[in-house]
Amino acid sequence: MSGGSVVKENIEEWLKSRDITSIEPTDMSREYIEEMSLMLADRPFNLLSFNCEQYAFFLKDGYAKSPQLFWWGVGITSFALWRIFR
């Protein structure tokens, strides 16, 4: 579940192999994003505690959160409780 650190890539090269599914407006400057990325560069990727979604929310809101992980947790917990008490 753990991996490497934040990687700085050329956006044009990165986009060649990806499709954009949504664009979120932001008032973050390029300088702010670069500064925060450098600050977080030594923090390794972790699926549960610091993934790409949490990184984006950290830049935007100042704290890491993952709605996807939250709802996965709700689903898994609900399933476990259903299995226990059925």
Protein model, in words:
There is one protein chain. With 86 residues, this protein is mainly alpha-helical. It has one domain (11-85). Helix content is 52%, strand content 0%. It contains four helices and no strands. The longest helix has 19 residues, at 67-85. The radius of gyration is 17 Å and the shape is elongated.
Q: How many β strands by DSSP?
A: 0
- Which term fits the overall shape? elongated
Order of helices and strands: HHHH
Quote the distance from N terminus to C terminus.
32 Å
What integer value in Å does the Rg equal? Answer: 17 Å
Largest sheet: none
Classify the beta-strand content into a percent band: under 5%
Q: Topology of this protein?
A:
Layout: H1 11-15, H2 30-40, H3 52-61, H4 67-85
Short description:
The chain has four helices and no strands. It is mainly α and 86 residues long.
Q: What would the keywords be for this entry?
A:
elongated; 52% helix; 86 residues
